[in-house]
Write a structure and sequence with these properties.
By secondary structure, the chain is an alpha/beta fold. The chain has a single domain (10-211), classed as Rossmann fold (3-Layer(aba) Sandwich), CATH 3.40.50. Helix content is 36%, strand content 24%. The chain has helices spanning 10-26, 29-36, 54-60, 74-85, 123-133, 150-166, 176-181; strands at residues 41-46, 65-70, 91-94, 108-114, 134-145, 186-194, 204-211. A seven-stranded mixed beta sheet has the order 3-2-1-4-5-7-6. Helix 5 links the parallel strand 4 (108-114) and strand 5. The two termini are 15 Å apart. The model has no long low-confidence stretch (mean pLDDT 95). The chain binds S-adenosylmethionine. The site of S-adenosylmethionine has 22 residues, from loops.
């Protein structure tokens, strides 16, 4: 697999927590709870950022849970490591992009993706890796912002180039929900479009996909 340079967005990493603090309190808790609800076994947090999911993992941690996280940006990863160190629950963090995961086949019972597929350079390649590291029957849970309709979509298209540079490579106009449910390695358990957020970061989709037992060969 050709290697891609690791993302490095020190300014974005420095402002991420302060910039999202209000959202973390007012908007995101039910969606982070949705992602963490009832997790069991080996869990991977894909593109963990500053570790915003970690306290939610701690709430569902038990004797049979084991938490792992990947974060390719060193500035984000340092904050994630600090967030993990403040918790009683161990969270094993690796430096790896979603399109080249450093785990064996069928390793995880669940993969959690929170506002990550907007940033990965190749969503299909990342989904191939998620399918590979999930055991058959394992779940991908996601919460992602996607392209809107009408005038809001036009605003997103206009802002997209600047936004991508300022927001660590984030794409405003992806159709992540449609792309994920079309993946032939997964069955759709549930998906919903949520009219929340503020243009240009709205609406969101969240859902759960189950890895099929027989993963079709990719073209
Ligand atoms: C908007 S942040 C979301 C962070 C975290 N998941 C959350 O819920 O707050 C997107 C994260 O994806 C990371 N990222 C960038 N490129 C990536 C890639 N190729 N694979 C996985 N994560 C990536 C970024 O470094 C950043 O931490």
């Amino acid at each position: 697999m050709p290697s891609t340079p690791s993302p490095s967005a020190p300014l974005f990493a420095a402002i991420y927590d302060p910039a999202t603090a209000v959202l973390e309190r007012a908007l995101l808790p039910p969606h982070r709870e949705y992602l963490a609800s009832g997790l069991d076994g080996k869990v991977l947090d894909l593109g963990a950022g500053t570790g915003a999911m970690f306290p939610y993992f701690e709430r569902v941690a038990g004797a049979s849970t084991e938490f792992h996280a990947t974060e390719p940006d060193p500035h984000m990863r340092r904050q994630a490591a600090e967030a993990a160190a403040a918790l009683a629950t161990p969270i094993h963090i690796e430096s790896a992009p979603a399109q080249a995961l450093p785990y064996g086949d069928d390793t995880f019972d669940a993969v959690v993706a929170s506002m990550v597929f907007c940033t990965v350079p190749d969503v299909d390649a990342a989904m191939g890796e998620v399918a590979r590291v999930l055991r058959p029957g394992g779940e991908l849970r996601f919460f992602e912002h996607v392209v809107d309709d009408g005038w809001r979509a036009r605003v997103q298209s206009l802002l997209a180039p600047l936004w991508e540079r300022l927001a660590g490579g984030c794409h405003l106009t992806r159709q992540t929900g449609s792309q994920l449910v079309a993946d032939r390695s997964f069955d759709v358990v549930e998906i919903e479009r949520l009219h929340l957020g503020v243009t240009p970061v709205r609406p969101f989709v969240r859902g759960r996909l189950r890895r099929r037992t027989a993963v079709p060969t990719r073209d």
